[in-house]
Amino acid sequence: MTLVSAGLVITARSPINSAMALVSTFFFLAGIYVLLWAHTVAVMQVLVYAGAIMVLFLFVIMLLNLGDAPHRGKSSVTRLLGGASALGLLAVLSVTLGRTNPMPANLGPQAQATFGTMAAIGQSIFTTWLLPFEAVSLLLLVAMVGAVVVAKSRI
Amino acid sequence: MVPITYYLLLAAALFCMGMFGVLVRTNALVVFMCVELMLNAVNLTFLAFARMHGDGIGHVSAFFVIAVAAAEAAIGLAIVIAVFRSRGSVNVDDIRTMKH
User: Fold this and answer.
1) What pLDDT is stored for residue A123 in this prediction?
2) Is any Cβ of chain B less than 8 angstroms from the Cβ of A105?
3) Which tens digit of pLDDT belongs to each residue from A13-33?
4) Is some CB atom of chain B closer than 8 A to the CB atom of A79?
5) Contacts of A151 in chain B (CB under 8 A)
6) What single string gives the DSSP state of each residue in A77-102?
């Protein structure tokens, strides 16, 4: 399902259809995150990606008033090369990933209770990874100011 | 229990589809969406390896990737708007001023 909607993202002719397919991809991915016991990240995925980022995309699509673009894709040589490189990368990655240990770690009952919870992730972020966290917040501030400056027609 | 390898293969397939989209599509907005797809594939890999090792650090990395992706989307879309204002097009083949 995720792969089908991801395929729709790259094949849909109009950007709106691409964006809608991308939303469904994000929701399917959130479900897969829950299967991996990453509930907190799944919630953040739905909030940040399917909420904030997709609203931003839709706003821009409507602001620019893009309809169905005249279908003037890249040349077939580009398509062929792109497909070949993507397939090559997929083959290399499959061979490499096929060699990894397939079984998930056997967590004890105590670890099962805390794995992937908000408390465990917050504990880790605010102690071990405090400096990267602050750097990311600064990055978001700079990106916000930069986006306003770049998109504004005149200041 | 589903083996972790399946999740990793799904992530690899998603990443390759995103890469194909970046290389082939001409609309700058769709290219950005494909970049988001690739970032999500990387997130899925982080979470799969976190589950494989029973370690929470992968979740922290995925959190940072989401934050950086939000910043990247904001800046990228602002640039797209600015280019559309000055050129009237979001086709990546039409934007070739810096190409020599």
Assistant:
1) 84
2) yes
3) 677 788 888 888 888 888 888
4) yes
5) 77-78, 81-82
6) HHHHHHHHHHHHHHHHHHHHHHTS--
Contact B78 A15 (CB under 8 A): no
Q: Which residues of A touch B23 (CB under 8 A)?
A: 78, 81-82, 85-86
> For residue range B50-73, what is the model confidence (pLDDT) as tens digits?
888 877 788 888 889 999 998 998
Domain count, chain A: 2
For residue A36, being part of any structural domain is answered with yes
The residues that bridge with B27 in the sheet, in sequence order, are B91
d(CA A27, CA B23): 25
Q: Which residues constitute the domain of residue A126?
A: 117-155
Residue A53 lies in a domain: yes
Residue-wise pLDDT tens digits, A31-47? 888 888 888 888 888 88
For B8, half-sphere exposure in the C-beta direction (CA atoms, 13 angstrom radius) is 23
pLDDT of residue A17: 80
For chain B, give the percent of residues with pLDDT over 90: 13
Please check whether residue A78 lies inside any domain of the structure. no
User: What is the CATH classification number for the domain harbouring A40?
Assistant: 1.20.120.1200
- Distances in whole angstroms, Cα of residue B70 to Cα of each of A47, A91, A117, B15: 11, 30, 22, 18
Would A99 be classed as within a structural domain? no
